[in-house]
Design goal:
heterodimer; A: 111 residues; mainly beta; five-stranded mixed sheet; B: 114 residues; four-stranded antiparallel sheet; 11 strands
């Protein structure tokens, strides 16, 4: 079972920042937070991951709370092509290689 | 650097036939993972392989499904005697040799069983 909780759906206006929350209150010290997205039944696309520090790359920023029980994925300037299902995944680093996908958040960017 | 490749992209089989799905990992990647996505559902892990070894098959159905990743060539997911419930999108992902490396996904194979 997924160890994360996400809202089932969100809307965001085009050009605005999209902030996608994820709750992972049972996360343990050796577990990372990963974000993937799936655009219209394509293969999942890796976005970003982090352990405890905030992370930023060319696609997004990941903000992890100090207690690590929740995180937020930020798409700074959402475009229509960002419409997708976004998955927040907790994954440990002790040999458990598989990704456990939950139901994700269906993000719709509104023109 | 080409991404993960899967073929065929679409596969139609009649009940009782065999389905073979192929996955070529990214160059330099020696770890392969298969996931299945049933209609209107999330992705579910099936199996994790390294070259010539099955590491974790905890998500594989006990019967009719098998996977291999030979020393040479692509990884193969084989489904024998397909049934309508096998209709799904099958995704392959690959990662480099180090533990905890990011998995990169292919475009998937959509299997339809008539």
């Amino acid at each position: 079972d997924a160890k994360t909780t996400q809202p089932p759906s969100m809307d965001c206006a085009e050009g605005r920042a999209a902030n996608l929350p994820c709750n992972h209150s049972t996360i343990s010290g050796n577990e990372y937070v990963y974000w993937y997205r799936q655009i219209h039944s394509q293969g999942p696309q890796y976005i970003i991951h982090g352990l405890k520090n905030n992370e930023t790359n060319e696609m997004a920023s990941l903000i992890i709370t100090e207690d690590r029980k929740s995180s937020t994925l930020i798409l700074p300037h959402a475009t229509l092509r960002d419409t997708a299902v976004y998955y927040c995944i907790v994954r440990d680093n002790f040999g458990n290689e598989k990704l456990t996908f939950g139901t994700g958040t269906r993000l719709t960017i509104i023109p | 650097n080409a991404g993960v490749m899967q073929n065929p992209r679409h596969l139609v089989r009649r009940r009782g036939q065999e389905a073979r799905l192929r996955c070529s990992p990214m160059k330099g990647h020696s770890h392969v993972y298969w996931y299945r996505q049933l209609p209107e559902e999330g992705l579910k892990f099936m199996v994790y392989l390294q070259k010539e070894n099955i590491i974790d098959e905890s998500g594989m159905p006990k019967e009719r499904f098998s996977a291999e990743f030979p020393k040479e060539g692509p990884s193969i997911l084989r489904i024998q005697q397909v049934v309508r419930g096998d209709s799904a999108a099958y995704f392959c992902a690959s990662s480099p040799s180090q533990m905890m490396d990011t998995q990169y996904f292919g475009p998937g194979t959509r299997l339809t069983v008539l």
